[in-house]
Amino acid sequence: MEKKKVMIPQLKEFKQQGQKLRMVTAYDYSAAVVVNNTPIEMILVGDSLGMVVLGYDSTVSVTMEDMLHHVKPVVRGARNTMVVADMPFGSYQAGRKEAVRNAVRFMKEAGADCVKLEGGLTVLNTVKAIVDAGIPVMGHIGLTPQTVSQLGGFKVQGKDVETAKRLIYEAQQLEQAGASSLVIECVPAVVAKLITEQISIPTIGIGAGADCDGQVLVWHDLLGMFDRFVPKFVKQYANVNILITEALIGYAEEVEKGLFPADKHCFGIQDSVLKTLY
Ligand code: KIV
């Protein structure tokens, strides 16, 4: 049976029915096709692209053009999977008009189903403006990597009374502003549970415990393809780097020894043609 694409209004139904939502990042067509053939409901084309694909030290340098370039092939590969496009740093900070214009580009030029943007109280008006323009928004609170220097590093957020209360309030306000789901990143599990209980839109956790309504992991973390650092919240379900390295070494050795290509990998011509060549 063909997988059925989950649509935005169904997200709340998942929560009401206690059915977990599964999201993974992807950045290209071939990865999107693989995800599309699994039961995973959502793909996030995250600005983590900057670190795991483009090799930057943070997500700050990622541009709208970088994101559009990667959202487009993912949409082409993921016909039955919701695609969420991450708004990069600088694409929604300069004003509501520009934020709406950039969100529209993700929908119109790339074919995304939803956009995601980071922040709490400071982005409420922006979220509302994008939602009012008819574009679904996924919020993102807790550790927000685009403002990591302001947060003082990649640190767990909401560990004291004041910041935990603020996260709960931000989540409620983002729901009020029209967000249809909410990523919670690097927050104590009990705080993420409280947030999840106090809003009616689904929470998608990353480093936020098992009581969120769904989970998200970065492709390269989940598959063991990024080992510059492995955060505590990551589970590597495979170590694809080892497989790829073994394959590349095997290829290099066989080329060196003249074992590849073998006859079966080569094209022939008719003897009559061959004779005329000598
Ligand atoms: O960019 C990204 O991949 C993200 C996830 C970590 C939620 O924002």
Structure description:
The protein is α/β, with parallel strands linked by helices. It has one domain (about 10-240): TIM Barrel (Alpha-Beta Barrel), CATH 3.20.20.60. About 40% of the residues lie in helices and about 15% in strands. The protein is built from 12 helices and 8 strands. The protein has helices at about 10-15, 30-35, 50, 65-75, 95-110, 125-130, 150, 160-175, 190-200, 220, 240-255, 270-275; strands spanning about 20-25, 40-45, 80-85, 115, 135-140, 180-185, 205, 215. An 8-stranded parallel β-barrel has the order 1-2-3-4-5-6-7-8, surrounded by 6 helices. Strand 6, helix 9 and strand 7 form a beta-alpha-beta unit. The chain is elongated, with a radius of gyration of 22 Å. Bound molecules: 3-methyl-2-oxobutanoic acid.
Q: What fold name stands as the CATH topology?
A: TIM Barrel
**What's the helix count?**
12
Task: Name the strands of the widest sheet in spatial order.
Answer: 1-2-3-4-5-6-7-8
Gyration radius over CA: 22 Å
Along the chain, the helix and strand elements come as: HEHEHHEHEHEHHEHEEHHH
Q: Mind telling me the CATH class? A: Alpha Beta
Structural class based on helices, strands and sheet pairing = alpha/beta
Q: What is the distance, rounded to the nearest whole angstrom, between the alpha carbons of the first and last residues? A: 58 Å
Q: In total, how many beta strands?
A: 8
Name the CATH homologous superfamily.
Phosphoenolpyruvate-binding domains
Note the overall shape: elongated
Bound molecules: 3-methyl-2-oxobutanoic acid
Biggest β-sheet, characterized?
Answer: 8 strands, parallel, barrel
Task: Report the mean per-residue pLDDT as an integer.
Answer: 97
Measured as a percent range, the helix fraction is 40-55%
Low-confidence stretches: none
Please identify, by name, the CATH architecture: Alpha-Beta Barrel
Q: Give the percentage of residues in beta strands.
A: 5-15%
